[in-house]
Amino acid sequence: MDQQPTGACMVCGKETKNRCSKCAGAGIDLFFCSPEHQKLVWSMHRFFCGPGKANPFRFPPLSPDEVEAALEGLDMRVDPNNGAHATLRQMLSDSKPALGLDAEDVINLFSSYETMPAGLSMQQLHACRLHSARRRLREADQTPGTIYVEPPLATLTSLAIHALVADVDASWRTPLLHRFSILVALVSGPSSPQRFRCLDYAIRKTTEFIYFGTRPIQ
C-alpha cells in the first residue's frame, strides 16, 4: 500500500490514506484501511487488482475447471428461462461466420485471453462462466450427499449481468463492479462478527452508489 489522498475504506468505510498501490498504478483509487481488511476481500480482489485488470474492470479468463465444465455441457440449455439461445454451443457459434471458430475454439480462447478477442463478446465469456456453474450444479444434484456452492466469480458475473447495461460508461461500471466484488468476497467468506459488520457497510455503500452515484452514458 502507498500513502496518497484520503478515501473511505472499501471494506469498512474508515477514512484512510492507504490504497491498493497496484490499482493506483492502473488509474483507480481503491482504499483499504489496513492489510487485514484488504486480505479480508483478497479472494476476489486478486482477480481484479492492478494494470490490465482493475481499470477498466476486466473479468478473468476461464479456469481449467470452467473450461472443462463448459465443454462438457455445450449442448445443455444456457438459460432454461430464455429460449433466445437454446444451448451454449448455439450461442458461441454466433461468432463462427466472422471468425471461423467452433464453439470449442471459443471456449479455449476464453481460457487465456489478455484482451477480448475481436469478434467475441464479454456476454459470451459470461455465458461460459455461468454455464459452467450450472453444469456443476446439475452434477451435484445428481449425486446424493453432494452440496454445491456457486463459485464467487459466477455470483459476481450474475450481478454484473443483472445490474449493468451495455451503454453505461466504464467510468461508472468499473467502480461499481469493484464494489460488487467486495460484496461477493464478504458473503462467500467464513462467517465472523467482523465480516458481518463490514458486509452491512458494503451493502449500504453499494446501494448508495447505484442510486446516487454519477452514471454517465456513452
Overall SS class? mainly alpha
Which of globular, elongated, flat, extended, rod-shaped describes the shape?
A: globular
User: Portion of residues in helices?
Assistant: 40-55%
Helical stretch tally: 11
Element-by-element helix/strand order: EEHHHHHHHHHHH
The rounded distance between the terminal residues' Cα atoms is 33 Å
Keywords: Metal-binding, Zinc, Zinc-finger
Pfam families: zf-MYND
InterPro entries: Znf_MYND
Protein name: BY PROTMAP: gi|342320007|gb|EGU11951.1| Peptide synthetase NRPS5-4-3 [Rhodotorula glutinis ATCC 204091]
What would your notes on this structure say?
With 218 residues, the chain is mostly helical. The protein has two domains: 2-54 and 172-212, no CATH class; 64-156, no CATH class. The chain has eleven helices and two strands, in the order ββααααααααααα. The radius of gyration is 18 Å and the shape is globular.
Entry keywords:
mainly alpha; 2 strands; 2 domains; 218 residues; zinc ion binding; two-stranded antiparallel sheet; 11 helices; globular
Annotate the secondary structure layout.
Blueprint: E1 2-8, E2 15-19, H1 21-25, H2 35-40, H3 42-45, H4 64-72, H5 88-92, H6 96-99, H7 103-109, H8 122-141, H9 152-163, H10 170-188, H11 193-212
Antiparallel strand pairs: 1-2
Describe this structure in a few short sentences.
This protein is 51% helix and 6% strand. The chain has helices at residues 21-25, 35-40, 42-45, 64-72, 88-92, 96-99, 103-109, 122-141, 152-163, 170-188, 193-212, and strands spanning 2-8, 15-19.
